[in-house]
Structure formats: structure tokens, C-alpha cells
Design goal:
Layout lengths: L1 H11 L29 E5 H5 L6 H5 L5 E5 L5 E5 L7 E5 L2 E2 L21 E6 L13 E6 L11 E10 L5 E11 L2 E12 L10 E2 L2 E2 L10 E14 L2 E15 L19 E21 L2 E21 L7 H7 L3 E15 L9 E16 L7 E15 L4 E17 L2 E20 L3 E12 L3 H5 L1 E4 L4 E4 L7 E14 L2 E24 L5 E25 L2 E16 L12 E9 L3 E10 L15 E14 L3 E10 L23 E9 L1
Parallel strand pairs: 4-7, 24-27
Antiparallel strand pairs: 1-6, 2-3, 4-5, 6-7, 8-9, 8-33, 9-10, 10-13, 11-12, 13-14, 14-15, 15-16, 16-17, 17-18, 18-19, 19-20, 20-21, 21-22, 22-25, 23-24, 25-26, 26-27, 27-28, 28-29, 29-30, 30-31, 31-32, 32-33
């Protein structure tokens, strides 16, 4: 981190940079607009709904949203999928800045995010996310906290949290502080999670096509320790601040391709554990200067991140003389990502008058390397430069949002002994038009053409990917994907009744996917290659419901359904498409108590791609009960009780590469206490 700190000190004295201003206006931090002013489909999950419920991975915490799903690899890993697209087609942001980990290099790699003490999580579906950040064709998930405050805190606020879950005999504890001390805004938050291997329904685990009677998924434990510190000052001219963050994870890999290797006759099998250890350090400086000549605001940030992911075998007992040989055979693999990024956003004109206009510049350097037994890709250096122009106009008849972004991506890598310097220049545009009609009807039409340059793994992968149990080969001749998307939304609300419906058609040119060659290597693993073909993604999301007031409080009942169909232009289904999902929800909220019941019905997926198998449907019944108890004048105790998978359903994600070996958790109950003072 010494090099990181050197650059940060330099930029700290250059008060002329930044990218996305994270000042929260009413509800949404994206683009600096209120939720009512945003025509694109944005979900906002409040901080209370995250902070006061059970700890889980990012994907599982949002997969009840329509159009949003998760690709699981055990309780610690849940990579989000939006409208049938995952991986690098979905951007994970922290306060508007890209999270740079190695989750894109393996389906068993978690998203390196700190979900403690959040203000909210924002989800934008589809390529229209270009209007709010470094958009991509799937969408964006923005995790928002107040670590670097852009407004002064009032008073001092402390929170202590304790949690217990049954399915994993897990515990967690958290602490956070926000306050203003002598004109400086201070924040600090830490969280520690310790989950043992989680329980699953009997017969849910399937190895080599045969169900097992095990009720505990071995190697599905998780331990996390995170902390973050922020400091900022607010002045008449704007604000300036910095933050330090660190996250450490240790978790078991519940399935690994190597487990399928056959043992020699008479050879004794050793109990072994495959474990992942991650560590990240992040330093960010950001600020804004207002009322400059010709500009309403100049915002800037600089961020440096060091990330490492080490995966290796933890051996059981050895026979005498075997230890050295086994340790050599099972050397650990370390994935690293060292990155630097700076950004600047210039707000032009009156941002509060419905005529928002800004210009953005982002530049980043990212070095990814893999060392060890599973080094299936040689080091890759990536440089990215992006220029964007965005404008919002609130006219008498229609609201217009238009964005254009030019991305220059350079990647230097190698396959074998051949070096490759690959450069892509992509222009992306998005237009959203919104109409407020009579009778409480709102219409939104979005048109976009968004490009995505091939990722490191798609270009330079060249070896055995044991987590996915296959051999993967990249293709340096891949071209950028281009999503040509149109979506149409209707919103209606009157007398407590509401309808929200969206339909979209997303034609992706040069869609990148893995194709099974039909052959296997010496260890009986299938050999796959990255290929391109035109693909179409068509789908819809619809929600109907009613909210009303009773003697017991505010009640809301709703039903939602989403579906996406992915097909190749030449015929056949795109693999690992999310199944149809129905969501039934009942919520009751009064002054001190909130009840929330969700029934998530996932249907059987039998429209499968080449090499896939049918996945049975399942029904999840979840509940959350939260009660707030006032203690004194400024103290509050929040008691949360929650249940997951109450029917103890055998459930598996069709999108997961290990859906049979790593099913979803069984019935789980939990309790959480938060003391605010």
C-alpha cells in the first residue's frame, strides 16, 4: 500500500478531481436526483432493511427483487444476476465507485463488499444504468453508506448489533459510530461474522447424479471481519474527506472439481478442506467544490485498492512420509488485483431546476495476477479511460434523460508464450423518455446501445478451472459485445392500488459464452472455449398490489412475476438463464412493529442450453419481524426475528455451476438485536 499512499497524498493536494457525487437527495444517490425525478426502473432497499435483518451474501439479499437473481456457490458467495446477465455484465459499486476484486475470475469468488452500516442499496436494471454510472448491459448494484459524509452529522450516533442464526449456528456482532467532532465528521464501523457449515434438507446434495443423505453441507462455513473509517469536513465551498477500509474473509469451498478425481485401488482417502482467504485494503479520497466559474459543482475522487484471494487445501491426517508430497501437490493459488482509479464530474447549469447536465472523466489502472497450482491465466494489465456526457431536461410534455460514454480499454496479457496487447474503443448511448399522464399513469421508454469490452478471463483464460470442474480456453480475437436494448414501463397508482410493469427486448451482438467442445482432458474434465454469437434476451417484470390503512397500521399486499428468455440467433438457448419467478408479499407496518412475509416461487427450468440439465422449481417462505423499543429519550432497542426457507425446501440455483453439489440452505431462524444511542 505504500505506492497507494504516495499517490493519495499527491492527489489530496490537487483539489481538482472526482467522479460520482454520493450526496443523497431524498432517496437515490444515483445522478443526484430524487427518486421521483428518475424515470428508469430503480429499486432502493433502505439501510434499515439491510442492517436489521439477517446477515447474508450480496446476491441473496436482493434476489427477491423482480428481474434480479443470484448465482450461488455456498452461503458466502452469491453473485447477482440482472435480467439473465451476470459476471462483468453487472457492475457492483460502492458509493458509485466500481468494486475491484476477482469475483469475475471464478464463480466461487465472492463480491468484496462491506454491507455493514449501510444507508441503502440501489439496483438499476438493464443498459439504461449507463445514465447513472459506468453502466453495462445487465445493470448496476450500488451499495451506499456515509463513510465519507457530504453533509454534517447532527449529534453522535452509536449502534451495537448482535445476531444469531440456527441453520449455520452462526453469530455476528457489529459496531458503528457517526458524529461531528469540532466540525469534522467522523465515521467508524466494524463487523465480525462467524458461520459454521450450514444445514440442508436431506437428499438435497447430489454427487455424480446420486442424492446424499447428508444434512450438513461440508465446507460451507464463513468468517468475515470488516472495518471502515471515514473523515470529512464541510465548508461553504464544498466538502473534502477520505476513508480507509479493510475486509477479511475465510470460507470453505463447498465443491471443487478436484474432488471428482478417482483414487487408486487400496489408496486411503484423506479428509481435506478447500479454503479461501481474502484480504482487501481500500483508500479513498473525495470531495467537491461548488460555485466555480461556469460550473455548478466540480466533484472528484481517487481510490486505491489492494485485493488478494488465496485458495488452497487444508489437509487432514497424513501417513508417515506423505506430508511433503501432498503439500507440494496441493500448493495454494493466489489471485491478486491492485488497482488505482480517479474520476471527475463537472455539473453544468442549475442542477435543481430540472436541467441537470454534467461531464465525467474516469481513468483506472488494474493489474490482475494468478500464482500457484490453479494459475489458469497469466498476469493481465488493464488501463481504462472513459469520457461521459449526461443531460436531463424536464419539458412540459416529456422528461428526457440522455447519456453518451466513450470507453477506451487496453489489456496486456498472454496465452502461452505469446504476448497480446488488445485495445477496444466503444461508444455507448442511452435515452430515457418519461411521460406523466392523466389518471395517475406514468410511461417510460428506454432506448440504449451499450458496449462491453471482453474481460480478462474471456481473453486470456488458458487452463483448468477446478471450481467449475472444466478446462477453459480464452480467445484473444473476441470483439466487444453490444447490447441494443429497448424497454417500456407502465406505472399506475390510485386509491392504494398500484401496477408496475416492464417489458424489454435486448439484442446482444457478439455475445460471449462458453461452448463445450465435446472432448475431455486426461482428468475427465470437459474442455470448453469462449465463443461469440448473436443472442436475444426478451423478458418482462410485472407487479400488482394494494396498500391500505387499518387499525393495526399500514398494510401492503402484492404479487410480482418476472421472466427472461435467452436464445441464440442461430438457434438454441443461452445457458444458465434464470427461471420464472413469482413473488408474493405481505407487509404490515405500524409505529413500532414491522411484519414482512415473502413467498418466492421459482418455477422449473427446462429451457436449457447445450450441456445443461433441468432444474426443479422450489418455493421459499421467508418472514421478518422487527420491533423498535424506545429506551429513554435518545436510546432505542431494535429487536429483529427472521426465518428463511420455512418449508425446508430442496432448492438450487439453475444459474449456479454447482447447483447439484451446493444446494441452498435449509430452514433457518435468526434473531438480531441492535442498540442505538
Amino acid at each position: 500500500m505504500k505506492k497507494s499512499l504516495y499517490f493519495i497524498l499527491c492527489f489530496a493536494f490537487l483539489n481538482v478531481l472526482h467522479a460520482m457525487d454520493e450526496e443523497v437527495i431524498v432517496t437515490s444517490s444515483l445522478g443526484g436526483a430524487t427518486l421521483a425525478e428518475i424515470d428508469s426502473p430503480i429499486f432502493v432497499i433502505t439501510g434499515d432493511d439491510i442492517n436489521y435483518t439477517g446477515s447474508t451474501n450480496l446476491g441473496d439479499s436482493i434476489d427477491y427483487l423482480l428481474g434480479v437473481n443470484s448465482s450461488g456457490f455456498g452461503p458466502g458467495v452469491g453473485q447477482p444476476i440482472i435480467r439473465g446477465m451476470g459476471g462483468t455484465r453487472v457492475r457492483i459499486l460502492s458509493n458509485g465507485k466500481l468494486v475491484r476484486d476477482v469475483s469475475g475470475l471464478g464463480s466461487d469468488h465472492l463480491n468484496d463488499v462491506d454491507v455493514n452500516d449501510l444507508q441503502q442499496i440501489e439496483v438499476v436494471r438493464g443498459p439504461s444504468s449507463l445514465l447513472y454510472s459506468n453502466g453495462t448491459m445487465g445493470g448496476i448494484i450500488n451499495i451506499v453508506d456515509q463513510t465519507i459524509a457530504s453533509k454534517d452529522f447532527e449529534g453522535n450516533n452509536f449502534n451495537i448489533g448482535l445476531e444469531r442464526q440456527t441453520a449455520n449456528m452462526g453469530t455476528s456482532g457489529s459496531f458503528s459510530y457517526k458524529g461531528n467532532v469540532n466540525g469534522l465528521n467522523l465515521t467508524y464501523a466494524l463487523k465480525e461474522v462467524n458461520f459454521e457449515s450450514h444445514e440442508v434438507p436431506s437428499g438435497a446434495i447430489i454427487h455424480e447424479g446420486n442424492p446424499e443423505a447428508e444434512t450438513t453441507l461440508a465446507n460451507s462455513d464463513l468468517a468475515t471481519f470488516s472495518q471502515k473509517f471515514g473523515l470529512s469536513t464541510i465548508e461553504d465551498w464544498g466538502y473534502f474527506g477520505f476513508s480507509l477500509g479493510k475486509i477479511e474473509n475465510t470460507y470453505g469451498i463447498a465443491f471443487h472439481g478436484e474432488e471428482e478425481e478417482e483414487h487408486k485401488p487400496g489408496e486411503e482417502e484423506h479428509e481435506e478442506r478447500i479454503q479461501a482467504d481474502t484480504e482487501s485494503e481500500n483508500v479513498t479520497i473525495e470531495g467537491a467544490v461548488t460555485n466555480l466559474r461556469g460550473l455548478d459543482k466540480l466533484s472528484y475522487f481517487f481510490q486505491a485498492n489492494d485485493y488478494s484471494f488465496t485458495e488452497g487445501h487444508v489437509e487432514g491426517e497424513h501417513h508417515e512420509g506423505e506430508e511433503e508430497e501432498e503439500e507440494e501437490e496441493h500448493a495454494p493459488t493466489t489471485f491478486t488485483n491492485e488497482s488505482f482509479e480517479f474520476g471527475m464530474k463537472m455539473d453544468i447549469g442549475n442542477q435543481d431546476g430540472g436541467n441537470r447536465q454534467n461531464v465525467t472523466i474516469n481513468a483506472s489502472q488494474e493489474d490482475v495476477a494468478i500464482v500457484g497450482e490453479e494459475a489458469f491465466m497469466k498476469p493481465v494489465d488493464s488501463q481504462m479511460l472513459s469520457f461521459g456526457y449526461f443531460i436531463c431536461r424536464e419539458l412540459d410534455v416529456v422528461d428526457l434523460d440522455f447519456g453518451v460514454r466513450l470507453d477506451q480499454v487496453n489489456r496486456d496479457g498472454a496465452i502461452g508464450n505469446t504476448l497480446h496487447d488488445i485495445s477496444e474503443s466503444d461508444l455507448s448511448t442511452a435515452l430515457t423518455m418519461g411521460w406523466d399522464l392523466a389518471n395517475n399513469v406514468g410511461l417510460t421508454l428506454g432506448i440504449s446501445s451499450v458496449a462491453r469490452a471482453p474481460s480478462e478471463i474471456e481473453l486470456f483464460m488458458n487452463g483448468t478451472h477446478l471450481a467449475a470442474a472444466r478446462v477453459e480456453t480464452g480467445n484473444v480475437n473476441l470483439e466487444s459485445e453490444r447490447s441494443n436494448n429497448i424497454d417500456f414501463s407502465v406505472n399506475y397508482e390510485n386509491d392504494g392500488y398500484f401496477v408496475n410493469a416492464s417489458v424489454y427486448s435486448n439484442a446482444v451482438d457478439n455475445y460471449i459464452y462458453l461452448l463445450d467442445s465435446g472432448t475431455k482432458n486426461a482428468k475427465n474434465l470437459p474442455i470448453t472455449n469462449y465463443r461469440q454469437a448473436d443472442a436475444d434476451f426478451n423478458g418482462y417484470e410485472v407487479e400488482v398490489g394494494r396498500s391500505f390503512t387499518t387499525e393495526n397500521g399500514e398494510v401492503q399486499i402484492s404479487y410480482g412475476r418476472d421472466e427472461v428468455v435467452g436464445t441464440f440467433g442461430s438457434g438454441g438457448n443461452v445457458p444458465r438463464i434464470t427461471p420464472i419467478k413469482n413473488v408474493y408479499r405481505f407487509a404490515l407496518e405500524n409505529e413500532n412493529v414491522t411484519y414482512d412475509v415473502k413467498i418466492i416461487d421459482v418455477q422449473k427450468e427446462d429451457d436449457i442450453g447445450f450441456g445443461e440439465s433441468v432444474t426443479d422449481g422450489y418455493t421459499m417462505v421467508d418472514f421478518d419481524i422487527r420491533r423498535s423499543i424506545a429506551i429513554g429519550s435518545d436510546e432505542e432497542l431494535v429487536l429483529s426475528v427472521f426465518g428463511r426457507n420455512l418449508m425446508d425446501e430442496k432448492a438450487r440455483n439453475h444459474t449456479s455451476y454447482v447447483k447439484n453439489e451446493v444446494p441452498l440452505a435449509g430452514r433457518n431462524f435468526g434473531i438480531k438485536l441492535n442498540f442505538n444511542f
